[in-house]
Amino acid sequence: MITSFLKLIVQIALRIFFRKIEVQNREALPDKGPMIVAANHPSTIMDASVIGCFLKQKPRFLTKASVFNSPVSKWVLTNMRAIPVMRAADSPDGKANTSFLFSKCFERLADGDTILIFPEGVSKHGRQLHKIKTGAARIALGAEAEYDFELGVKIVTIGLNYSNPRLFRSDLYITVNDPIEVREWKEQYLQDERATAQALTDKIKEQLHEQIIITQDAEEDNLLGQIEDVYKGQLLDKFDWKAEDAEKDFRATKGIEEALRYFKETDADRVAILKNKLNNYFCNLDQLRLHDDLFENSDERKSFFRAGLRHVFYLLFGFPLWLYGLINNYLPYKLPSVIAYKLTNFEEYIAPLMMFTGIFTFPLFYSIQIYTFHHFAGTGYLTAIYGLSLPLTAFFTMAYWRNLQNTNDQLTLFSRFYNKSKRVAKVIAQRAAIVQLLDEAKQEYMEVKV
């Protein structure tokens, strides 16, 4: 009962927190277990919440044993179907106790359950895939071996791609791969258990590599991000893809990632030149207090004044509604952010803490506001209209704020264009040179790949 209720609440919270959630190949998910879901882990609690909400079955979660240290947390986690993991760091003797975990997982899989595992073992913000541990493979193979490979355990890999896991109203693209049938590994396992566990782990790693954007370190991630800013829009246009199509947007970024890795291996000098040009370009943008989006569309560059004027009219007429929404939604919106940053300094925890805090702050404040309004207004009809206006104006207020920022950017560019025209012309020329360099690299890469 508590699990179904929590799932409903979290589903609502996720739909509010993310602007768009898209699941690719959802039909590949089996309707029932026994199954192990193996996923990347960029955003701690958020990852488990997301996957748990779109799976048809109620999954079991592997959770470090140290968080079961109080009666309340133990009760909550048990009702959430969590299985404690005694890591070496949690053990008094400094040794991991896997025997209980494995026996519990074998038991759950034998009962047809689904177990969610993050095989990296850690959650770190960023587009890196850390070393994949063998636990998921060993549990799957061990459970099958216990029942002579008759259980029918499947492993499904899931890739989580956040546009920005810390940003409210960002996007989430989820990729689901076809299930791995563990019983097909029987002959290998009977010959060499350890080598088979490693081979199956490699298979999991290989699938996850296809499902997410991966960079080697923060420096490469920054370089990939800069290339995306300058070139992805042009790449999408080249193939007549729309940025609103999450799958096409992912494929474009994945193509850039693979091309970057290819050139780092075959032509490091070209990558170094590109990196230097991009750093200079973005440094000049920062000095002008501009951003790349303003230079992406050549038609827009010819109509700075018209675009700025259009936004000014929108902001002028929308101001009263924005002010109403701001007054009614500021505290429940702001508090989750304040609380999250007070509780932790780890970026990967910020978004889930904000989301789960918002589950309480918005209903609480809305209830108080609606009760207060009804107390003074005295009519149910007006109270109902007021209550409905709260979430609607909250979304309008956010859209208005984005338009305000966009208008400010347009006006800043308009000002720079007339006051610092030479510097603006310089960054436009820098951008054109970078695009030409990337065009040449794309053509060469496509010829190699054909």
Would you kindly provide a written description of the structure presented here, covering whatever features stand out?
- This protein is α/β, with parallel strands linked by helices and 450 residues long.
- It has 3 domains: 2-211, Glycerol-3-phosphate (1)-acyltransferase, CATH 3.40.1130.10; 218-296 and 432-449, no CATH class; 300-419, no CATH class.
- The chain is built from 16 helices and 8 strands.
- The protein has helices at 2-17, 44-54, 71-79, 98-110, 135-146, 186-191, 193-211, 218-238, 246-266, 268-288, 293-296, 298-301, 304-343, 347-377, 380-419, 421-449, and strands at 18-24, 35-39, 59-64, 82-85, 114-117, 154-162, 170-176, 180-181.
- Strands 1, 2, 3, 4, 5, 6, 7 and 8 form an 8-stranded mixed β-sheet that branches.
- β3 (59-64), α3 (71-79) and β4 form a beta-alpha-beta unit.
- α4 packs across α5.
- It is flat.
